[in-house]
Amino acid sequence: MEWKDNGDPDNKPNAYRDYYIEVYRGSTLVSQKGWVKDTSWTISDLSTGNYEWRVKSGDGAVDSGWVGSWHFTVGDVPPEVICDNQSACFSKYESSGAGSWGYVQPGTGDSSAAYNQHAYWTYNGQNSALDWGKWQPNLPQAGTYNVYVWYPHYSGSAPETNSASYQVHHANGDTNVTWNQATNPGVWNKLATVSCAAGTACYVKLTDSTPEGTGTRRVWFDAVKFVQEVPATLPYTLSGRVTTTGSAGLAGVTLTDGTRSTTTGSDGSYTLSGVPAGTYTLTPTKSGYTFAPATRSVTVSGNLTGQDFAGTPVDTGTSLIVKAISPSEGSGSQPTSVTISGTGFATSPAPTAQLSGAAGSMALTNVAASSATSFTATVPANLAPGSYDLIVTSNGRTSTLPNAFMVLAVGLQVSQVTPTSGLNDRTTDLLVQGLNFADGAVVALGNTILNTTRVNATTLLSVVPVGVAPATYDLTVTNPDASHAQLAAAYTVLDATSTLNNDLLSTNDQLWLNPVTPRVNTPVQLGLILQRSGGKAALEGVSVEFRRDAVDGPLLGTSSVPFLDPRASSESTTPINVTFPSAGSVTIFAIIDPQDMVAEGNEANNVVSRTVVVATTTTDLTIPAVQGISINGGGSTTVTEQDVTVGIEATDPAPNSSGVQAVHLIEYVYSPAAQRWVAVAQSGWLPYSQSPASYGWSLLPLPGMHYVQVRARDAANNVSIGNARQLVNYESSADRIGLNQTRIYRYNVAAGQAFSVNLEVLSGDADLYVWSSRTDQSARVSNQEGSASEQVVIPASEVVPGVYQVEVYGYSAAEYRLSTSNGATLASLQAVAGGGMEASKTVPSAPVVPVASIPDERTGSVPPAEPASNFTVYLPLVRR
Predict the structure, then answer these.
(1) What DSSP assignment string belongs to 668-705?
(2) Is 664 exposed, middle or buried (0-12, 13-18, 19+ CB in 10 A)?
(3) Fewer CB in a 10 Å sphere around the end CB: N or C, the chain?
(4) Is it the case that residue 11 has pLDDT exceeding 70?
């Protein structure tokens, strides 16, 4: 294996380069080498089969990230058949007539990334297939084939589609794959592994249909490759499932036969491949769990299934977990006596407890141990108003309850609302945040009183009704004692019938850096996720300026968002590299459309700012990783109570590991009015002293899907990106929705399981839409008139494995109760309720939010955390 180094732009901190190489067979790592200075590596003793390899480089401070992967075969070279767009095996249909497609010709400046320097393309049609291309090679022999596609990148007036729908036809039917042609151009990309007969029975077909707006994306028709897999010399497999509480699958369990190992997936299932005939001891391991049986002795002479284990959390009854504090709020002007409940509290010595918030930390006093499940303490006076995490330490163990205690302000304050705008043809949930909200607080939008639920002293959940006149309104909160506070120009009601609305906006949690912690004199990527609401035509090249210290402060750089669709879209600017010369706090400003090139209805939201802490240099530059997130012990992701336990596993990998010190949680919900994911709650940095660690969390009392995003921080102040997210469905005993309002839920459904959704309509008219992860499928619908209960049943044979999105739509204001069944028999599901369709009702052509949409890993601001330093404290000398 050989590779070429493209160099280090700054030759710092070292002029030399080292390399790290990994070789995989399927998902199993079979060999690795590093860090080495050679640009080649010879590996031997590999068994017959197909392999992939990848490489990364480093200069002693940072690494390039993995490049690859490339594949090679050990043994006889397998049949490989390539069908190019100029080959006889390729056919196409051009609905506008022959020659209407675009064509990249050999020798032109844009042909270098195309296979054999030529490729066809056409514009997409939104959910409408008019044109198509078909690759149908003549395969020399029957077998299992890996199918690859090749496409180029072309800098034209419209970008590549991110939803090309490939149909791979094979001996067992069709495999449909949605592929992002905007990524990884100019190389072979693997689509699927399929069984094919010899001849032309297998083919790949691609149409111009995508979910994006018509004519806004390019669809490429270039080349397809079929590569036959070489049969492995070690043909046997061991498979089974590991479960935990309530028969739920347990993810992240390592199983080994002493030589090979594998890890369970999200449903607890596993397959150990490449096992020769013989007798082995199969052993499961996962930190924090014991297993029954502890091991299994297996004799292999063929494939073995049903090798199951049950995992039990270690020390369930005595683990230190803080569950609640009562009361959960108090005045800052006087001490507050509290009772703290949970499990695993020592009675001698008594636990210690402290509150930690943005204003600092303060120890609780007068701690008196009552039992292993509760103790009393006093919150001291003179704490700054705000939300505090509760940290309890007992017998050397630590547990944290995020956002546990609210210190009330002297006066009422309103700080922000989320979202800041919404259409007037639908009911909109509005999150109001501030200080000192009392029970019975009243929220008014202009002169309109909003139906409001008090979450706590800092959060109110209000509902903006349908039909409010378009305008920008002040928002006023009034407590029962007649004290009130106002947020000027807090919320804008948009006219749903107008085509003139056009707004570019963002928020401070969408101003991102990579890595999350910038360091002195070290380049860091900077960008802004920009949102567009309204408009009539696509926008290209929307500019964003980045400055420091002030709106007119020193220029850090200028970037742009390549493309924004009308009505609703969200994209990031192209990253720029910036460097900070000194450590300390820096406020970064992002100015959207600084030259006023885009006509907007509201330009008051075109400036976003965020304060970050630039850290000093360190030997540990390895980013920690969050390996797993569980809800209530790893069982179902559906809960019926707001209070949940979040389990987190995190690690700080080598080299120069300094250890995971803390984790940070953000809770997201999707706002149809804002047309994006919004952060509704977040913690401070929570101490991480054991793995896995458990934290109590109280969800926003809004039924539907929530996502919990977790980041980890190590002792060197490196912070992980936000790619660790966990779905939580909150199903309340009953819920109310307004006219044109939608509640969204998500469920994971495995292959072979029937899936049923039952909607009991208690009053009004609520309808049910169920979407699979396949973008080419329409919704399953039950939308009868009036208060008839709705039901959708999907037989196991028709289930698309993966996520199903359930939408409850308010055809009128309604009250409902939702329930689901996963894996029951079809007969029992159909016996529960009816369901049906009303022809007079319009059925949506797309889900409210794409089923694949989750909170962006780059979003979410974290509290600054500077590395620990040593200080000298001088105390006065008292003489008597």
Answers:
(1) EEEETTTTEEEEEEE--PEE--SSSEEEEEE--S--EE
(2) buried
(3) C
(4) no
Q: Is the pLDDT of residue 274 over 60?
A: yes
Structure tokens at 73: 């075969």
Least confident span in 138-142, 244-248, 843-847: 244-248
- Quick one: DSSP state of residue 208? S
Answer whether residue 314 shows pLDDT above 70: no
Report how far residue 873's alpha carbon sits from residue 338's, in angstroms, rounded to the nearest whole number: 33
Among 671, 609, 590, 588, CA closest to 420? 671
Check: CB of residue 2 under 8 Å from CB of residue 40: yes
Q: What is the pLDDT of residue 231?
A: 55
d(CA 439, CA 431): 16
Asked which of 30-44, 262-276, 660-674 is least confident by mean pLDDT, the reply is 30-44
Query: Of all residues in the chain, what percent are helix, strand and coil, respectively (each to 5)?
Result: 0, 50, 45
The closest alpha carbon to 313, from 689, 639, 649, belongs to 649
Rounded CA separation 527/863 (Å):
19
Residue 470's SS3 state is coil
Helix (H, G, I), strand (E, B) or coil at 827: helix
The least confident of 67-81, 568-582, 653-667, 809-823 is 67-81
Question: Residue 424 has what pLDDT?
Answer: 86
Give me the percent of the chain exceeding a pLDDT of 70.
91
333 CB neighbour count, 10 Å cutoff: 11
Residue 306: count other Cβ atoms within 10 Å of its Cβ: 8
Residue 510 has phi, psi (to 5 degrees) of: -105, 5
- Compare 223 and 830 and report the one with higher pLDDT: 223
What's the pTM value of the predicted model, to 2 decimals?
0.63
> What is the spatial distance between Cα 264 and Cα 242, in angstroms, rounded to a whole number?
7
Cα 366–693–399 angle (5° rounding)? 5
b/e map 382-391, b = 16+ CB within 10 Å:
ebebbbbbbb
- Name which residue leads in pLDDT, 232 or 740: 740
The 3-class SS string of 39-61 reads CECCCCCCCCEEEEEEEEEECCC
Distance between start and end Cα atoms, the chain: 80
Closest by Cα among 316, 297, 317 to 244: 316
Cα gap 336→172, rounded to integer Å: 68
87 closest CA partner among 123, 121, 119, 112: 119
Q: Cα angle vertex 84, ends 78, 86, to 5°?
A: 145
Tell whether the torsion through CA atoms of 434, 438, 443 and 447 is positive or negative.
negative
CB 60 within 8 A of CB 13: yes
CB 198 within 8 A of CB 142: yes
**pLDDT tens digits, one per residue of 234-249:** 468 889 998 875 566 7
Q: Note the pLDDT tens digit of each residue in 400-424.
A: 899 899 888 778 899 999 888 888 8
Secondary structure (H, E, C), 102-146: EEECCCCCCCCCCHHHCEEEEECEECCCCCEEEECCCECCCEEEE
Is the pLDDT assigned to residue 614 strictly greater than 90?
Answer: yes
**Residue 796 in contact with residue 752, Cβ under 8 Å?**
yes
For residue 796, the 8-state DSSP code is G
Q: Which residues pair with 782 in a beta bridge?
A: 768
Which is more confident, 636 or 613?
A: 613
SS (H, E, C) 224-259: EEEEECCCCCCCEEEEEEEECHHHCECCCCEEECCC
**Rounded Cα gap, residues 600 and 378, in angstroms:** 53
Closest CA to 601 of 493, 455, 699: 493
